[in-house]
Specification:
heterodimer, A: 180 residues, mainly alpha, two-stranded antiparallel ribbon, 6 helices, 11% strand, rod-shaped, B: 153 residues, alpha+beta, four-stranded antiparallel β-sheet, 2 helices, 17% helix, elongated
């Protein structure tokens, strides 16, 4: 009885051709001598044939569906090398998280603060913050005035004539005060 | 706020890259400085405004003159601690010496002489690519206005 139970467990695999050598011989010899197991094998064979018939007809019907004509070439087509990369990259950009605001903010701040450093020639509209710092100045006895003009962000150094001390040698008429 | 590991890692690497990049920018070595002098005659008579001075119009309007004429525009390239000498009308010479650049700010030593007599000596610190105005020396009934700009390269 135990032998029949073991053989019946193997009949399916034997019918599918999955058994080889001694195992296949054991099942075949047992089926020749055991009518109950032989009957089991006949039932399984009938079931197998019936299932193949049903699946065959369904497959034929599936092939007649309109979408199959489009789907089949796509399944069978060879995928380009970059398809995998795109599949991996798309979700990264498709699902923004609030946390991405952190790197975005960093980039924005860096761009704003250091734009001048990398684009010194860039100038739009009024001049950039152009205030010049005067660290030392010597006008050799002449009067000198400093102006920081806020509208145009300009530093002006202005030399003017001391009213009590004509600019000897120049002979030119000069201003007696700063020009602003 | 829901933080993802990917975003935090990305932030970390962006910050790291930015630190390296900015450090590189700070230590960027400029070989020389391009100095440009606009020599302008300003007068209280007339209303002429030289069209070539359009980029400086806003700055010049701060001065109490009515007429501005560009006499000369000259550009020279100077090395660090090297002099660039510009001839200015009236027998004057303007000497500009680039000293150093720190935080995108240029240190310049500027000296104005008339003949052998120094008229002005100043040390200024200005934005790279910026300018300042030096004015006042008399010229043909008006004054000279010098726009001194420098650009380290």
């Amino acid at each position: 009885m135990n032998n029949c139970a073991a053989i019946r467990d193997m009949i399916g695999a034997w019918l599918d051709g999955e058994l080889r050598g001694a195992a296949a011989d054991a099942v075949r010899q047992h089926l020749e001598s055991c009518s109950a197991c032989a009957e089991e094998q006949r039932q399984l064979t009938k079931l197998d044939l019936a299932m193949k018939a049903v699946l065959g007809s369904e497959a034929a019907r599936l092939e007649e569906l309109p979408f199959w004509d489009d789907l089949r070439p796509r399944i069978e087509a060879k995928r380009p090398w970059y398809a995998g990369l795109i599949e991996r990259a798309v979700p990264v950009f498709r699902m923004p998280s609030p946390a991405w605001a952190v790197p975005a903010l960093i980039l924005l701040l860096i761009g704003g603060l250091y734009f001048d450093v990398f684009s010194p020639d860039w100038n739009v509209g009024s001049p950039r913050n152009n205030f010049t710092t005067v660290e030392s100045i010597d006008a050799y006895g002449r009067n000198v005035a400093l102006l920081r003009e806020h509208e145009s962000k300009t530093t002006v150094i202005w030399l003017y004539q001391n009213p009590d001390n004509e600019d000897e040698g120049s002979g030119e008429v000069v201003d007696k005060g700063p020009a602003f | 706020m829901k933080l993802s590991i990917k975003a935090l890692l990305f932030s970390f690497f962006v910050g790291l890259a930015a630190a390296f990049y900015l450090n590189a920018a700070e230590t960027k070595t400029f070989q020389s400085v391009q100095i440009t002098i606009h020599t302008i005659a300003a007068q209280k008579q007339g209303s002429e405004f030289d069209a070539r001075l359009a980029p400086l119009e806003k700055q010049l309007k701060a001065l109490n003159y009515r007429s501005y004429r560009l006499l000369k525009e000259e550009t020279q390239t100077a090395r660090w601690q090297g002099n660039a000498n510009f001839e200015i009308p009236g027998g004057r010479v303007l000497t500009v010496r680039p000293q150093e650049v720190t935080n995108n700010q240029l240190g310049l030593r500027v000296q104005l002489k008339q003949g052998s007599k120094p008229q002005l000596e100043t040390t200024v610190r200005m934005n790279n690519g910026g300018n300042f105005i030096l004015g006042g020396p008399p010229h043909e009934g008006g004054v000279l206005v010098l726009s001194i700009s420098a650009n380290a390269r």
